[in-house]
Amino acid sequence: MASASVGVEDNNEMKLYSYWRSSCSFRVRIALNLKGLKYEYKPVNLLKGEHSRPEFLQLNPLGFVPVLVDGHLVLYDSFAIIMYLEDKYPHNPLLPPDIHKRAINFQAASIVSSTIQPLHNLSVLNYIGEKVGPDEKLPWAQSIIRRGFTALEKLLKDHTGRYATGDEVFLADIFLAPQLTSAFKRFNIHMVVFCPWSHVNLLCGGIKDVNKM
Question: Please, are residues 79 and 109 in contact by the beta-carbon 8 Å criterion?
Answer without folding.
Answer: yes
